[in-house]
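quick one
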Amino acid sequence: MKYLSTRGHADRKQFCDILLEGLAPDGGLYLPETYPKITAAALTKLRKAYHEQGYAELAFQILSLYIDDIPAADLKAICAKTYTAEVFGTGEIVPLRHLEDGLWLEALSNGPTLAFKDMAMQLLGNLFEYELGRRGEQLNILGATSGDTGSAAEYAMRGKEGVRVFMTSPHGRMSAFQQAQMFSLQDENIHNIAIEGVFDDCQDIVKAVSNDHAFKAKYKIGTVNSINWARLLAQVVYYFAGYIQATETNNQKVSFTVPSGNFGNICAGHVARMMGLPIAKLVVATNENDVLDEFFRTGVYRVRGSADTHETSSPSMDISKASNFERFIFDLLGRNGQRTKALFSAALQTYGRFDLSADPLFADAAKKYGFESGKSTHADRLATIKDTFERHGVTIDTHTADGVKVAREHHSDAKVPMIVLETALPIKFAETIIEALGHAPERPAKFAGIEDLPKRVHVMPADVEQVKAYIERHCAPAAQG
Ligand SMILES: *Cc1c(COP(=O)(O)O)cnc(C)c1O
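structure w/ pyridoxal-5'-phosphate:
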């Protein structure tokens, strides 16, 4: 399997090259040259693998279709080490829970940081350690976080050979629980840098460091953001696991509703559907930051400025543009790299928007690819959390509430189960749960009292040079030559 760029670059690469690389050289995103097709017989085999051998085996079999530059036995061992009941809380890893008529919740948030990003990041940590070890290389991951991504990355990379993490976050702006999760890590290779500023300042610092090519090469700076193909691929597996749990035969279809921000999670659903998994609809659920809902309703993709980007009570979906969206548009345009490039580099740079409403291909987004969309507001979240608790005794987090609200509006066929992806546990967003229910959500025992643990964090002004100096002090430069 070779990988290509969505912007038409001539290079074709192998999995382990793009694993460590991030963006393609022309600024595009990597995708496989073709999507491997799953026949009914192959799906039956995967069903059996999940039921008899578990999630890790299912992951191994799906990943094997996309990765041919890691020996099978090694890849199998990496999957087995990643997807354990110990790390993810249950033997099923992603248990499916019935909520109400035809509506199900797939739990993706029982990993170490209680958000779905662990599903992919835990695998990424093990893949990085494996590949860096094989090459005798080091990697210094520099990132910016307002919560979920940073903690998932730190918990995935802690104690890993050859990897260091430098994670910037806006000083004093994350929830107490999120700060405690990140700052209580005492591992030598994890560095928390609290920036006196807002999240955008953190992102600007990361960009400035990455644009200093000499520094980036000398200190082997890399990222783990959601455009990484390996993260997306890891997510494809739980669409299969959700389908297998909700059905008995391959003649049945299911739909998914996905709380969405950067379009990473649901893009994995698109890949699963392209492989032939019997998915009827893929429903994009957004909060007030409705860039994606607007596109699927109107055909206009319009990036928001920072004044137009709302701080909401489902903060992990607060985006101004959806960084993985280019992958779907590339497929929608018949994999036309030149056209994708014209939209994402020229049109977005110049006008901040593009408009496909008059293009017949836009109709395919729903007809051929199954996409629908909806949005939710703070009041909707409160009402959905309250209603779900009162009628079913189930407490859902704010992001999952956006999903449940939109799923109810799009669940049109009683014969097709609608699976809502649960993307975080409510304890991470306790304030809003208290606002909705009048009491705090349950706290898993292993998180008792984490706010009182000693914290390991460096507070710094929003100054690129100081961040660079900190990185220099804490990592030996990569070996010359
Ligand atoms: C990251 C995140 C999302 C959004 O996922 P995307 O892949 O960016 O669409 C939704 N919910 C939670 C809890 C998250 O952490």
